[in-house]
Amino acid sequence: MSHNKNLAFDTKCIHSGIREYEHGPVVPPIYQTSTFKFESAQHGGSLFKGEQKGYIYTRMLNPTIEAMEDAISALENGHKALGCGSGMAAVHTVFSALLSAGDHIVCSEAVYGPTVTLLKTIFAKFGVETTFVDASNLDAIKSAIMPNTKVVYIETPGNPTLAIADLEGAAKIAHEANAQLVVDNTFMSPALQKPFDFGADVILHSLTKFLNGHADVIGGIIIVKDEETYKHFRKTLNQTGGVIDPFNSFLVHRGLKTLAIRMERHSISAQKIAEWLESHPKIEWVRYPGLKSHPQYDIAQRQHNAQGGMITFEVKGGFSAGETLMNTVKLSQLAVSLGGVESLIQHPASMTHASMGKEIREEANITDGLVRFSVGIENVEDIIADLEQALDKA
Ligand SMILES: *Cc1c(COP(=O)(O)O)cnc(C)c1O
Question: Between the N and C ends of the chain, which has fewer C-beta atoms within 10 Å?
Fold first, then answer.
């Protein structure tokens, strides 16, 4: 059942990764154990030599983690997946597996902040050089390629501008240079965007966001296309140690069952809210891939099955209007993170990026009235009414 490629995506969300277990549970049991008994010295030896399949130690492999990995691999049409302790552990594992001292990586400038920092600090320290580019411009990617470029790394839609990169074009450029295209697919999830269909070589996600979907787990995952890459990545993850645990894997696997219907609702509601915001007199501009005003609207239509739950907008009146909006919303909660069933709102200038200083913020396209909204699955009229009463005061 778990790898039947003929099943529709929403059916796969319910059934992928599920195997037969003792006593016939419908849901995979939580194997909350750090280690597994060998039947004999010979059995232990053959497991370690890889002659026989079986579980040894949870950092290496665990049935509950494996069930969740298989499920997500099936949803991305991958070969296998590797569960990680956080999205950043997934990013770190991918870079550790693919890059060596003297290598170069081309990275989209619109990626998750800590990914930028990881490259600029730890990987720079180990002799990996990074060029940051506007990945919505294929010429910029192409001209950043160097003879030692091993990886092109893209997150699309990007953060916080929701700029969209053409994955097919980026894959072509990467492959012509013998580099691999790695895609952070967190913002869309496999329900809305399948990077392997456009030529990506490796996909990763923060499970913390839409895949788990319930704001109660920190986790990450890497999906690969062939056994050789899988073995190399598994060895790297086993050595660096950033694995997910059985209970969090169980929660993610449970969250996946509603992924298709959650993403559908996030997208329908976000479209309504984005259109409503775009016509609101207190709003300067709205960025949402489902709006014709989005600079990469055409790519979004081609690359996404629907347009997702993330909206960025600029409230008129700058910093103080943004701050007032934060302090007057009632239903939407002020928090970082995204992709949960509850609506979350965030004003970078007064919150996450407050310590940065206005000039550096604006270099990163974070203007004073910029607001990032993660649309939840509450009734859309309630979400709009809440924003409306708050914008009246902003
Ligand atoms: C949150 C996030 C990450 C990092 O994930 P954590 O689970 O917080 O470590 C990476 N990429 C994107 C796009 C994210 O939104």
Answer: N
